[in-house]
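Homework-ish question, so no full write-ups if that breaks the rules, but can someone show me the predicted structure for this set?
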Amino acid sequence: MVTPTSLLNLDRQLCFALYSSSLAMTKAYKPLLAELGITYPQYLVMLALWQHSPLGVGELGARLNLDSGTLTPLAKRLQVMGLIDRNRCEHDERNVEISLTAAGKLLQARAEPLPLCILQLTGLQIPQLESLTSQLKTLRDELVANTQTRATAANHSVSPNPNPTPTAEHTPGN
Amino acid sequence: MVTPTSLLNLDRQLCFALYSSSLAMTKAYKPLLAELGITYPQYLVMLALWQHSPLGVGELGARLNLDSGTLTPLAKRLQVMGLIDRNRCEHDERNVEISLTAAGKLLQARAEPLPLCILQLTGLQIPQLESLTSQLKTLRDELVANTQTRATAANHSVSPNPNPTPTAEHTPGN
DNA sequence: CACAATTTAATTGTCAACAATATAATTGGC
DNA sequence: GCCAATTATATTGTTGACAATTAAATTGTG
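A: Not a homework solution, just the prediction itself:
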């Protein structure tokens, strides 16, 4: 069975282009991060902490768009490696503050060259890189705003998806 | 500790924009795919099979950039759901042919509206969508070409990464 | 103060992604 | 034909992502 052209064609899907390029990026980082002894998601957590430390689990999750089910075990591994500390906040024992250790701070210096290493692997020039990054951030924010979350309480945003673009409910396939 | 500007700034990273937008896309698809009873990676496999069935595990992996360690259990779940069949090839018993069942083919009709549903959630117009998709495919292919794989045998491509762009091996941070 | 509602993390279970390894079939010298 | 190398898939173990649930602390209202 061969279906050459359809809106469901794999190579036309933005979703698959996103998915496969994101995985490809992870694989590109892997050998570089292996020298630092961390994985790609762990690197993202370190990026957030290098920018601001300490951060609560919730605040970290808000910046990375990840929940505690992902961050808690991930942070425990970073703690075992000695890169971060995890402590209950004194004034509100519900909060867990995640902070860089001295070793965690020192790792930043070794990570500094990474963005330029990766830039070379992308084949992009700086303006293209910034343009693509900007487009993706816009896309992400739009998707987050228009996707109803499974949160228990009310969404404090205006509305999940009232009717963002009243265009083509259905159009003839190309 | 606050570090306002650095090349390591989280929100400047293409890698994080990719990562977070890809996860956001997965979450956007989730409630729609739940009605079809499949997950997002399962949907990608079905997309590939709707385009061409049967496909060997290896060929499927080549199209999706996934290996057998991911695809084998995923395909088994689709088989249990009755959407695909898995059979050893007669002429080469090493190959496993994955083919759509009648139910798998029927599911395509219910998936047809999805791309347009998602398009609305993205807030993009068609030209922007196609441009972004194209940029991401180019990026993915460049990253794959420049990332040395852990394959046992020799890489049959020219070379992992001889010296694609001999620019800035290191530059002063901004 | 008491207590229900809320907030915050952690836990549990399922599905994924992948390195490393194992298993089985095939191919190519000899 | 025999056997080493190769090819193709499956298995195992680790890390991640997330829904659903649990546990604990805090807040607000009476």
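Now go work out the reasoning yourself. Hint: The radius of gyration of chain A is 20 Å.
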